[in-house]
# Entry
Amino acid sequence: MAESFSFGLRNAGFQVSKYMPFGNVDMVIPYLLRRAEENRGMLSASTLDRQLMRKELWRRLKAATL
# Structure
């Protein structure tokens, strides 16, 4: 799910959760490739997604150096 979509839902008062598949690489990779193909249009991050990811990356880098 796009971060901007999750962000909007959360700000509207909805509970948001993310699905994280796990298991053997041989089992997970085909699933992830299939999902990526199904959501090809969703893979291009919006401007807000990129801003949020950049902000979070910067926050984590700063925290790691302190």
